[in-house]
Amino acid sequence: MSKLHCKKTKRDPQKAGISSKKLLRHSVLLLLFVALLPQAIMAQTPRTSERLTLTSLNQFLAALPVNHSETLRVKSLLKDLQPSVYLRAGVTNNYGDEPVCLFTDVSSINLIQVVDEQHRNTVELITININESIDLNGNINMSLFSVFPNLKYIYIISSVDTTPRKITNMFSQVNSQFKVFYNILKAS
After folding, report:
1. pTM of the prediction?
2. Is 67 a domain residue?
3. How far apart are CA 169 and CA 161, in angstroms?
4. Is the pLDDT higher at 149 or at 13?
């Protein structure tokens, strides 16, 4: 077996044509880059889910004043037959003239702009269904809801086993003007 012999040499920055000032400047720039990179990455990562106030449906209703107009309105939106828009797979179906409810699912939420502008102006409640476990990996960008001037409530219904924390993590671009509540339906 032959052995390779390598001669160790020390490089002198002066002899290599690099001044000590230039070397120092490059070192400082590299250090700044390494120090600031994590902050730049974090600035691009949505951290808005921590600010989302998510309440269970029962807690939300219990916190409302008894016989108050808002309480009666919310209960009516949730329980009574209302003019509504259904958005599934990019197709809208309208039932009634001035819909106050919009029903959709996580896979269709990004297509919310296809809802007719006339109908957007009257919607007060959006119900979003979580139908499959894969939906929990979806993103609900709340800035999409800005096209609904009368929207007050967002109701999340999960038919899969999940936690409030997992639902909260689905939200980005949180807008605190909307009241968000959820219901996790138990399989029977």
Report:
1. 0.72
2. yes
3. 15
4. 149
